[in-house]
Amino acid sequence: MSRVVVVGGGFGGMAVAARLAKTGHEVTLLERSPDLGGALGSVSEEGFTWDAGASYTLLPAVLRDLFRKTGRPLERELDLEPLDLVREHRFEDDTTLALPTSRAGQLRALDALEPGLGERWAAHVDSFTEDWEVLRQHYFEHPWQRAALPDAVRRRFDSREMLHKRLKKTLKDERLRDLATFPFLAEGHDPRNVPAWMGLVAYLEQRFGTWHVPGGMARITEVLGARLATRGVTVLRGTPARDVVLREGRAVAVRTDEGDIDADEVVVAVDPRGLPSLAPLVERTMPAIPPVVCHVGLEGDVPDLPHEVVLHGDPLLVVRTGGHAPDGRHAWTIHGRGKIAEDLLRALARHRIDVRAQLVHRVDRSPRELVQLWGSSPLGVLWQGRSTVRARLGPDTPIPHLHTAGAHATPGAGLPFVGLSAALVAERIGPV
After folding, report:
1. Whether this model's pTM surpasses 0.70
2. What angle do CA 319, 324, 325 make, to 5 degrees?
3. Which of 225, 385, 401, 428 sits between 20 and 30 A of 410, alpha carbons compared?
4. Distance from C-alpha of 14 to C-alpha of 421, rounded to nearest angstrom
5. What is the pLDDT of residues 138-165, one digit of tens each?
């Protein structure tokens, strides 16, 4: 039995700890805060509850695989339900698009917006089919060999074509470009610095749909926490890791205020910048910064909105309506990106969604406060061009017996990719 220490109790750390414990390792999980889950948690005040981070996910197979390989199947632990809409978009020209999840539905909805838009969007999404198949096999689902990449992967990683440039050539309608760039703008990236192949996110949304957990995404944290207990993982809450201890060039322990915890393998599932031994390995990367967030509790009559509404422009506003509230009340979350020179609710009112008179409670969080609360940014590494994909650490690192998982690791941020990172690390370490 080998000893594994996992640093970080967010979704990535919990997922890798559960996988490794199931395959026979003695696992200790360190979490700096009193609670597990990190951004995959909730905020509760005055009877209202909001998702702190993700409110839905793509690639449901990632969660199903995690639960199946660590114990009881997902379906026996919690509900994972498909959403009919990806989201609603309200564009700067005052047109509105409710974007369904299916290909046929997207064709119809876009053609209703303007004849011909559906086929143009379908062609754009279809163009990423091969990107997904190639990268799924050699990057997303299996540990990649940096020094021996297949030619098909290397061509993509070495391409100088950025998403903004491709969209400028292939999508002449500004609204279609807004659809394609939104996932990256929402996470703080500049499409001019995002590799063109990452546009496959639109393919994933259409091919696999969007899914949510009734009761809030924090339910995943609750169920995974119970899974860790079942698998015998030692969970040390309120225990920040100060550094990874290296001896003769390899990782041998994790340093805490209470002393060093010896390890045969160390998995870092937090931003490596916070650990002095790892910081030099990622000095060429920057974190993607969270948005301005406002959780609001409302009462009375409010607009009937779908689970997510995107208000394009500067600032970019995102309204999520799926929080939980007492009877007769409503829990919304608003995210803001860009030039935010006014209160988010006032900015929202300029888009004819004015709920200021219905406000009974609010919780505001700045990007700095969110990073301090979670210990790092859950949005991982900022895209800074084609080199970023190689700048991330992964299931292996230059330091023997040291691995990374989570949003800052390969293959990146977002619940599906973080789940895949945990699977990559578990595959690299292997069973006892």
Report:
1. yes
2. 105
3. 225
4. 12
5. 999 999 888 889 999 999 999 999 999 9
